[in-house]
Amino acid sequence: MFAVAFGTAAAQKGLSLGETLGLSAFVxxxxxxxxxxxxxxxxxxxxxxxxxxxxxxIVNARMILLGATLQPWLKDEPxxxxxxxxxxxTEAGWLVGTRYHSEGGRDVGVLLGCGIILWLxxxxxxxxxxxxxxxxxxxxxxxxxxxMPIFFGVMLVPLWKGTRPALPWLIAGLxxxxxxxxVPGYVFIIAGALAGVATxxxxx
Amino acid sequence: xxxxxxxxxxxxxxxxxxxxMTLVTFLCRIAGVVVMSRVRLTPRIERGLRALPGxxxxxxILPVVIDNGLPAIIALTAAIVAMAMTRIDIVGLLxxxxxxxxxxxxx
Lengths: 204, 107
Hints:
Radius of gyration of chain B: 21 Å
Oligomer: heterodimer
Helix content of chain A: over 70%
Distance between the termini of chain B: 49 Å
Number of helices of chain A: 11
Radius of gyration of chain A: 18 Å
Largest interface: A-B, 94 and 73 residues
């Protein structure tokens, strides 16, 4: 579903099919692809490339946690397979894998197989969304220009674990609004996300 | 620098952007395993990283939604309410987009 929304949003933003599939196939991390679209340029400059890379790194920093919990399981694996496994690492695959591991399973193939299937589904869903987005004649009329923010907003709901854990989000939102009003470009995403992380680190 | 600037201003810029995004994402994916085999993540850093997904979402969408005015704010609220009630992401998305198109059709 996320990939369908991404494909639609990418088509709206004017990305080519190759660019859209390239992002899904290689970056393969939904949140950073979505945020990346917000920064996507028709004509790139060194500073816009730097911005998109920084934002991608910040958005995907949460994967450090996923990797860290997998480390005991993967430490005796051959390096190339671990590299492939980690390239395919996503929240969904991680969830299936760790559940299997906590039930006593040790076959890393489960993690890998899950990763490959999810990757294929991701590509097909991206393709579907892209054509849906590209074929709609008057996208604004159907609100498709705002697919990204609305879908992201929907994604907040399952993340909600009460008011206290959401406090960093609030700070992130406020900082981002202030920075957006004061600084041109997309620094607001970086500033807001970092403010949220800092708040998360400060509160117990 | 000048030739580099010319190259990335061409369609190759997108290829470079995707390649660079792929590289940093892969570094994030392997960082946990690589770092953990040497040091432990402190609880503080873990808390910070846990706050990241929600923070990114709000930091990204809030300015965009506010720039798009009241219809966008109402549509976003409708989408979140629908999602909270049904817990089905496609329902939330469709309610949000539907609300937005109705408001735009009326306005």
